[in-house]
Protein backbone atom coordinates (compact mmCIF):
# COMPACT_ATOMS: atom_id res chain seq x y z
CA UNK A 1 0.00 0.00 0.00
CA UNK A 2 1.33 3.39 -0.91
CA UNK A 3 1.86 5.72 1.97
CA UNK A 4 -0.30 8.41 0.44
CA UNK A 5 -3.25 6.08 0.32
CA UNK A 6 -2.60 5.06 3.90
CA UNK A 7 -2.59 8.66 5.02
CA UNK A 8 -5.79 9.40 3.18
CA UNK A 9 -7.41 6.44 4.87
CA UNK A 10 -6.09 7.52 8.26
CA UNK A 11 -7.58 10.92 7.72
CA UNK A 12 -10.99 9.39 7.24
CA UNK A 13 -10.66 7.66 10.58
CA UNK A 14 -11.91 4.37 9.25
CA UNK A 15 -11.16 2.39 6.17
CA UNK A 16 -13.79 2.81 3.52
CA UNK A 17 -15.59 -0.30 2.44
CA UNK A 18 -14.25 -1.96 -0.64
CA UNK A 19 -10.61 -1.87 0.44
CA UNK A 20 -9.36 -5.43 0.57
CA UNK A 21 -7.40 -5.93 3.76
CA UNK A 22 -5.59 -8.90 2.22
CA UNK A 23 -3.52 -6.34 0.38
CA UNK A 24 -2.39 -5.09 3.76
CA UNK A 25 -1.04 -8.46 4.77
CA UNK A 26 2.65 -8.21 5.39
CA UNK A 27 2.77 -4.85 3.68
CA UNK A 28 4.78 -2.01 5.09
CA UNK A 29 5.33 1.42 3.84
CA UNK A 30 8.95 1.37 2.84
CA UNK A 31 9.08 4.44 0.63
CA UNK A 32 12.01 6.60 1.66
CA UNK A 33 11.10 10.04 2.95
CA UNK A 34 11.61 12.42 0.06
CA UNK A 35 13.65 15.61 0.34
CA UNK A 36 12.35 19.16 0.42
CA UNK A 37 14.00 22.57 0.35
CA UNK A 38 15.89 23.94 3.34
CA UNK A 39 14.36 27.36 2.74
CA UNK A 40 15.81 30.65 3.94
CA UNK A 41 14.96 30.24 7.64
CA UNK A 42 17.32 27.57 8.91
CA UNK A 43 19.90 28.51 11.51
CA UNK A 44 22.66 26.26 12.82
CA UNK A 45 22.21 27.27 16.46
CA UNK A 46 18.79 25.86 17.29
CA UNK A 47 18.76 24.87 20.97
CA UNK A 48 18.32 21.26 22.09
CA UNK A 49 14.77 20.99 23.43
CA UNK A 50 11.45 19.32 22.79
CA UNK A 51 9.19 22.20 23.86
CA UNK A 52 9.47 24.62 20.97
CA UNK A 53 6.71 27.07 21.89
CA UNK A 54 6.26 28.91 25.18
CA UNK A 55 2.91 28.22 26.87
CA UNK A 56 1.78 31.74 25.95
CA UNK A 57 2.72 31.47 22.28
CA UNK A 58 -0.41 32.26 20.20
CA UNK A 59 -1.78 29.37 18.16
CA UNK A 60 -3.09 25.83 18.41
CA UNK A 61 -0.88 23.50 20.45
CA UNK A 62 0.46 20.60 18.45
CA UNK A 63 2.26 17.40 19.48
CA UNK A 64 4.35 15.64 16.86
CA UNK A 65 6.12 12.34 17.30
CA UNK A 66 7.71 9.83 14.98
CA UNK A 67 10.60 7.51 14.41
CA UNK A 68 13.72 7.77 12.31
CA UNK A 69 14.58 4.46 10.73
CA UNK A 70 16.94 3.06 8.13
CA UNK A 71 15.83 2.22 4.61
CA UNK A 72 14.13 -1.02 5.64
CA UNK A 73 11.69 1.18 7.59
CA UNK A 74 12.27 -1.00 10.58
CA UNK A 75 15.66 -0.57 12.20
CA UNK A 76 15.59 2.52 14.41
CA UNK A 77 18.37 5.07 14.19
CA UNK A 78 19.35 6.09 17.68
CA UNK A 79 20.99 9.46 18.41
CA UNK A 80 20.01 11.01 15.11
CA UNK A 81 19.67 14.79 15.38
CA UNK A 82 16.18 15.92 14.45
CA UNK A 83 16.28 19.67 13.87
CA UNK A 84 12.86 21.32 13.55
CA UNK A 85 11.92 24.92 12.77
CA UNK A 86 8.70 26.55 11.68
CA UNK A 87 6.70 29.72 11.28
CA UNK A 88 4.54 31.14 14.03
CA UNK A 89 0.75 31.32 14.01
CA UNK A 90 0.76 34.15 11.45
CA UNK A 91 3.57 32.80 9.23
CA UNK A 92 6.49 34.69 10.76
CA UNK A 93 9.97 33.19 11.41
CA UNK A 94 11.40 34.54 14.65
CA UNK A 95 15.11 34.08 13.95
CA UNK A 96 14.94 36.09 10.75
CA UNK A 97 11.91 38.32 11.05
CA UNK A 98 10.26 40.64 13.55
CA UNK A 99 7.44 38.57 14.96
CA UNK A 100 4.95 39.14 17.71
CA UNK A 101 5.46 36.35 20.20
CA UNK A 102 3.88 35.07 23.35
CA UNK A 103 7.35 34.21 24.57
CA UNK A 104 8.14 36.60 27.45
CA UNK A 105 11.90 36.14 27.05
CA UNK A 106 11.81 37.20 23.39
CA UNK A 107 13.69 33.95 22.73
CA UNK A 108 15.61 34.52 19.49
CA UNK A 109 15.19 30.84 18.66
CA UNK A 110 11.46 30.75 19.28
CA UNK A 111 9.77 27.82 17.48
CA UNK A 112 13.00 25.98 16.74
CA UNK A 113 14.59 23.00 18.41
CA UNK A 114 16.87 20.05 17.94
CA UNK A 115 16.39 16.70 19.60
CA UNK A 116 18.11 13.34 19.62
CA UNK A 117 16.25 10.16 18.77
CA UNK A 118 16.00 7.57 21.53
CA UNK A 119 16.90 3.87 21.37
CA UNK A 120 13.72 3.22 19.39
CA UNK A 121 14.57 5.94 16.89
CA UNK A 122 11.77 7.99 18.43
CA UNK A 123 11.49 11.75 18.72
CA UNK A 124 8.68 14.02 19.83
CA UNK A 125 8.09 17.69 20.36
CA UNK A 126 5.41 20.14 21.38
CA UNK A 127 4.85 23.43 19.61
CA UNK A 128 2.08 25.37 17.92
CA UNK A 129 0.53 24.64 14.54
CA UNK A 130 2.46 26.78 12.03
CA UNK A 131 0.64 29.53 10.15
CA UNK A 132 0.56 30.29 6.43
CA UNK A 133 2.94 32.49 4.52
CA UNK A 134 3.66 33.07 0.86
CA UNK A 135 0.84 30.83 -0.36
CA UNK A 136 2.53 27.70 1.04
CA UNK A 137 0.69 24.98 2.98
CA UNK A 138 1.36 24.84 6.73
CA UNK A 139 4.58 22.95 7.37
CA UNK A 140 7.34 21.95 9.74
CA UNK A 141 10.90 22.07 8.45
CA UNK A 142 13.15 19.13 9.33
CA UNK A 143 16.86 18.48 9.01
CA UNK A 144 17.91 15.04 10.16
CA UNK A 145 21.52 14.06 10.71
CA UNK A 146 22.35 10.45 11.54
CA UNK A 147 25.36 9.42 13.68
CA UNK A 148 26.84 8.04 10.44
CA UNK A 149 26.74 11.59 9.06
CA UNK A 150 23.87 11.28 6.58
CA UNK A 151 21.92 14.53 6.31
CA UNK A 152 18.36 14.75 5.08
CA UNK A 153 16.36 17.96 4.69
CA UNK A 154 12.60 17.67 4.39
CA UNK A 155 9.27 19.14 5.46
CA UNK A 156 5.99 17.71 6.66
CA UNK A 157 2.52 18.95 5.81
CA UNK A 158 -1.01 18.26 7.00
CA UNK A 159 -3.92 16.36 5.53
CA UNK A 160 -6.84 18.59 4.61
CA UNK A 161 -4.80 21.76 4.13
CA UNK A 162 -6.69 23.84 1.54
CA UNK A 163 -3.36 24.93 0.04
CA UNK A 164 -2.69 21.33 -1.03
CA UNK A 165 -4.09 20.15 -4.36
CA UNK A 166 -3.89 16.72 -5.91
CA UNK A 167 -0.77 17.17 -8.01
CA UNK A 168 1.04 18.79 -5.12
CA UNK A 169 -0.05 15.92 -2.92
CA UNK A 170 1.35 13.50 -5.48
CA UNK A 171 4.74 15.20 -5.33
CA UNK A 172 4.89 15.19 -1.53
CA UNK A 173 3.71 11.63 -0.93
CA UNK A 174 4.49 10.28 2.50
CA UNK A 175 4.93 13.69 4.04
CA UNK A 176 1.34 14.90 4.46
CA UNK A 177 0.28 13.70 7.88
CA UNK A 178 -3.16 13.43 9.42
CA UNK A 179 -3.79 15.29 12.66
CA UNK A 180 -6.00 14.04 15.44
CA UNK A 181 -7.56 16.15 18.12
CA UNK A 182 -6.41 15.00 21.53
CA UNK A 183 -5.80 16.27 25.02
CA UNK A 184 -4.54 19.84 24.82
CA UNK A 185 -4.23 20.11 21.07
CA UNK A 186 -3.54 18.33 17.81
CA UNK A 187 -1.50 15.15 17.50
CA UNK A 188 0.41 13.90 14.48
CA UNK A 189 2.98 11.28 13.60
CA UNK A 190 5.74 11.89 11.10
CA UNK A 191 8.03 8.93 10.55
CA UNK A 192 11.22 9.47 8.62
CA UNK A 193 12.79 6.75 6.52
CA UNK A 194 16.44 7.55 5.83
CA UNK A 195 18.39 6.29 2.86
CA UNK A 196 20.82 4.46 5.08
CA UNK A 197 21.40 0.78 5.56
CA UNK A 198 21.29 -0.24 9.18
CA UNK A 199 22.32 -2.88 11.57
CA UNK A 200 20.16 -3.69 14.54
CA UNK A 201 21.63 -1.78 17.45
CA UNK A 202 18.63 -1.81 19.77
CA UNK A 203 18.81 -4.31 22.61
CA UNK A 204 15.74 -6.32 23.52
CA UNK A 205 15.15 -5.93 27.21
CA UNK A 206 12.66 -8.51 28.47
CA UNK A 207 11.98 -6.36 31.52
CA UNK A 208 10.81 -3.28 29.69
CA UNK A 209 7.07 -3.00 29.16
CA UNK A 210 7.64 -1.16 25.86
CA UNK A 211 8.29 -3.54 22.95
CA UNK A 212 11.33 -3.03 20.74
CA UNK A 213 9.06 -2.82 17.72
CA UNK A 214 5.37 -2.68 16.94
CA UNK A 215 3.54 -6.01 16.79
CA UNK A 216 0.11 -7.58 16.43
CA UNK A 217 -0.29 -11.04 17.97
CA UNK A 218 -2.65 -13.81 16.92
CA UNK A 219 -5.93 -13.43 18.74
CA UNK A 220 -6.83 -15.91 21.48
CA UNK A 221 -8.86 -18.06 21.46
CA UNK A 222 -9.00 -18.68 17.74
CA UNK A 223 -11.41 -19.94 16.48
CA UNK A 224 -13.67 -18.28 19.01
CA UNK A 225 -17.31 -18.47 19.95
CA UNK A 226 -18.14 -15.71 22.45
CA UNK A 227 -15.21 -13.37 22.43
CA UNK A 228 -11.55 -13.28 21.53
CA UNK A 229 -8.64 -11.21 22.78
CA UNK A 230 -6.37 -9.25 20.49
CA UNK A 231 -2.99 -8.09 21.75
CA UNK A 232 -0.73 -5.52 20.14
CA UNK A 233 2.23 -3.38 21.15
CA UNK A 234 3.54 -0.02 20.00
CA UNK A 235 6.88 1.56 20.81
CA UNK A 236 5.62 5.09 21.37
CA UNK A 237 2.40 6.89 22.14
CA UNK A 238 0.48 7.70 19.00
CA UNK A 239 -2.60 7.30 16.90
CA UNK A 240 -3.67 3.68 16.50
CA UNK A 241 -6.37 2.14 14.39
CA UNK A 242 -7.48 -1.42 15.17
CA UNK A 243 -10.32 -2.56 12.95
CA UNK A 244 -12.16 -5.72 11.91
CA UNK A 245 -13.01 -6.61 8.29
CA UNK A 246 -14.76 -9.54 6.74
CA UNK A 247 -13.06 -11.65 4.08
CA UNK A 248 -14.57 -9.63 1.26
CA UNK A 249 -12.79 -6.58 2.63
CA UNK A 250 -15.89 -4.98 4.06
CA UNK A 251 -15.33 -2.99 7.20
CA UNK A 252 -17.10 -4.52 10.22
CA UNK A 253 -16.12 -2.38 13.19
CA UNK A 254 -13.38 -0.39 14.88
CA UNK A 255 -12.01 -1.65 18.16
CA UNK A 256 -9.75 1.35 18.53
CA UNK A 257 -9.36 4.62 16.67
CA UNK A 258 -7.43 7.10 18.81
CA UNK A 259 -4.13 8.03 20.42
CA UNK A 260 -2.90 5.48 22.97
CA UNK A 261 0.15 5.11 25.20
CA UNK A 262 3.23 3.11 24.22
CA UNK A 263 3.41 -0.50 25.44
CA UNK A 264 1.24 -3.58 25.10
CA UNK A 265 -2.54 -3.35 24.81
CA UNK A 266 -5.27 -5.96 24.91
CA UNK A 267 -8.68 -5.61 23.24
CA UNK A 268 -11.64 -7.94 23.17
CA UNK A 269 -13.91 -8.50 20.22
CA UNK A 270 -17.23 -10.21 20.84
CA UNK A 271 -18.26 -10.74 17.22
CA UNK A 272 -20.35 -7.56 17.16
CA UNK A 273 -20.31 -5.11 14.26
CA UNK A 274 -20.30 -1.31 14.41
CA UNK A 275 -24.11 -1.28 14.49
CA UNK A 276 -24.30 -3.56 17.52
CA UNK A 277 -25.37 -6.63 15.57
CA UNK A 278 -23.83 -10.10 15.87
CA UNK A 279 -21.87 -11.05 12.79
CA UNK A 280 -22.21 -14.50 11.19
CA UNK A 281 -19.72 -17.36 11.55
CA UNK A 282 -16.75 -17.09 9.27
CA UNK A 283 -13.31 -15.62 8.74
CA UNK A 284 -12.46 -12.05 9.64
CA UNK A 285 -9.35 -9.95 9.62
CA UNK A 286 -8.09 -7.68 12.34
CA UNK A 287 -5.93 -4.87 10.98
CA UNK A 288 -3.65 -2.72 13.12
CA UNK A 289 -2.22 0.56 11.86
CA UNK A 290 0.15 2.66 13.93
CA UNK A 291 2.61 5.11 12.47
CA UNK A 292 4.49 3.29 9.70
CA UNK A 293 3.40 -0.12 11.00
CA UNK A 294 0.56 -2.15 9.52
CA UNK A 295 -0.23 -5.68 10.64
CA UNK A 296 -3.13 -8.04 10.15
CA UNK A 297 -4.28 -11.43 11.51
CA UNK A 298 -7.02 -13.82 10.58
CA UNK A 299 -9.81 -14.41 13.07
CA UNK A 300 -12.23 -17.34 12.90
CA UNK A 301 -15.71 -17.06 14.43
CA UNK A 302 -17.59 -20.33 14.99
CA UNK A 303 -21.10 -20.25 16.38
FE1 LIG B 1 8.93 27.47 5.85
Q: Which band does the percent of strand residues land in?
A: 25-35%
Largest sheet: 5 strands, mixed
CATH C-level label of the largest domain: Mainly Beta
What is the molecular shape?
Answer: elongated
Record keyword descriptors for this entry.
single chain, 303 residues, mainly beta, Immunoglobulin-like, Protocatechuate 3,4-Dioxygenase, subunit A, 5-stranded mixed β-sheet, 5% helix, 35% strand, disordered N terminus, binds fe (ii) ion
Question: Brief overview, please?
Answer:
It contains 2 helices and 17 strands.
Task: Give a written overview of the molecule.
Strands 1, 4, 8, 9 and 10 form a 5-stranded mixed beta sheet that branches. This protein has a 5-stranded mixed beta sheet with strand order 3-2-5-6-7. A 4-stranded antiparallel beta sheet has the order 14-13-16-17, with no helix packed on it. The chain folds into 2 domains: 1-29 and 205-303, Macroglobulin (MG2) domain (Immunoglobulin-like), CATH 2.60.40.1930; 31-193, Sandwich (Protocatechuate 3,4-Dioxygenase, subunit A), CATH 2.60.130. The chain is built from 2 helices and 17 strands. It is mainly β and 303 residues long. The chain is elongated. The protein has helices at 3-12, 166-171; strands at residues 61-69, 81-85, 112-116, 122-128, 140-145, 151-158, 176-177, 179-182, 185-189, 192-193, 215-216, 228-234, 238-246, 251-260, 263-269, 282-290, 293-301. 5% of the residues lie in helices and 35% in strands. The site of fe (ii) ion (FE2) has 5 residues, from loops.
Amino acid sequence: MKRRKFLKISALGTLATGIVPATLLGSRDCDLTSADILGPFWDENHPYRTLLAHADEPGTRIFISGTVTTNDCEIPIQDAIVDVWHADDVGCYTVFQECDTGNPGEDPYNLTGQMLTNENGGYSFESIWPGYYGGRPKHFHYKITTPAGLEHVTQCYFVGDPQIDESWEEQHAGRIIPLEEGEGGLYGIFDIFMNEEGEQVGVDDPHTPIPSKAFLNNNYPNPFNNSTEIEFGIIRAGYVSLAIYDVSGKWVTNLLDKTVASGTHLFTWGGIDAFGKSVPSGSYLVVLKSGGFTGSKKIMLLK
